[in-house]
Design goal:
By secondary structure, this protein is mostly helical. It has 2 domains: 2-72, RNA polymerase sigma factor, region 2, helix turn helix motif (Rna Polymerase Sigma Factor, Chain: A); 90-157, Arc Repressor Mutant, subunit A (Orthogonal Bundle), CATH 1.10.10. The protein contains 8 helices and no strands. Helix 6 crosses helix 8 (140-157). The termini are far apart.
């Protein structure tokens, strides 16, 4: 049973990769999703009932893994947005200073070159690299580079701001 099960799972790998890519739209994320699925399948092979469709069982594991990962990302993004909004609103003793700082940051972001500014703003809004790449019709590596460079340029522009803790 074990060798037969393992061989059958391995034979379904190409199908899982196609399905994972259709969900993630990113080759690396799809590969990670398939690896997670295979790991869970082998770990839980005792739960597989012989005579049922292995492909359907593997698909369910893949889909649930994708959904769980998506939910975790969404929670993280929401927390990041809430933290960002909270710091813009007021954590400082003086709300006026916070508003001035937020205005200053927005101003400096607006000064970035258009391609860098657009990529950074989309990332701040919670878009994934792949989504930004698709929207701008650029390779994902270019988008990652632009966001990194935009952050660096923004830090340099904000060097004149003194933050007192």
């Amino acid at each position: 049973m074990t060798l037969n099960f393992e061989q059958s799972v391995i034979e379904k790998t190409a199908l899982l990769q196609r399905i994972a890519f259709s969900l993630t739209r990113n080759r690396e994320n799809a590969e990670d999703l398939v690896q997670d699925t295979l790991l869970l399948a082998f770990k839980n092979k005792h739960k597989f009932a012989p005579g049922t469709q292995l492909g359907g069982w593997l698909y369910t594991i893949l889909r649930n893994s994708f959904i769980n990962k998506y939910r975790k990302q969404k929670v993280r993004q929401d927390l990041n947005r809430q933290t960002y909004a909270a710091t813009l609103e007021t954590t400082a003793p003086d709300r006026t200073d916070s508003l001035l700082m937020a205005t200053h940051i927005r101003q400096k972001i607006a000064e970035l070159p258009l391609a860098f500014r657009t990529a950074l703003e989309m990332r701040i809004d919670g878009y994934q690299y792949a989504e930004i790449a698709e929207a701008s019709q650029e390779p994902i590596g270019t988008i990652k580079s632009r966001i990194h460079l935009a952050k660096r340029m923004l830090r340099e522009k904000l060097d004149d701001v003194c933050v007192v803790a």
